[in-house]
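Figure S7 source data.
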Amino acid sequence: MRALAVNVSVCSVVVVSAGSRGAVYINELLGSTAADDTEFIELFNPGPAEVDLTGWTISLWDSDAGPVFGTPDGVSPIRLRGRIDAGGFFLLANKAFSAFYDVKPDQRFDDNGIENSSYTVVLKDRLGEIVEAIFVTDGGEGDKANIAGRVITPDAVIKVDGRYIPPGFARETRTDGKRAYRVLEFSPRPAPSATPGRPNVFPEDDKP
Ligand SMILES: [Ca+2]
Ligand SMILES: [Ca+2]
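Tokens for the predicted calcium ion complex:
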């Protein structure tokens, strides 16, 4: 029991690792779509050097108030395998993804790997330090960002109007370091604004 207590203590110290920030981040995620869920997670490396993702993980924590709070979602943690180029993308996707997108993912995860209710997605580096944590919520009362049930302050909250779970999100590229996200579409499939494996597109990018 003592060892468990120590582990929990260590986990509670770091919310965001300054040393890891900016190295690689979650650039886009689609977790809930019409019919079978087309799910993918896109990482982006804005840095000047290739990053070996071996040992990195993506964890998904149920964030709905109630008995399931703090339990891991189906495929969590996803242990990353491979490398991400400087200025490049790393794409994880489920099987349903292939029916709608003509791009081969770098890594697979199981279908229905991302739940369709409030969750916290956490990217950790090979040292186990948190790179970022994003809370995606349907606005349910008592839902909170967490890691294994420990409430955290996330780096970003993705929420539409509190009546349904955002289907997914895409991060805007900004030079001031601030975060901004666009919410992807639930329907039709594929989400028209989703850009798995390539730079995100925003409405202003479409203007002449
Ligand atoms: Ca899902
Ligand atoms: Ca993209």
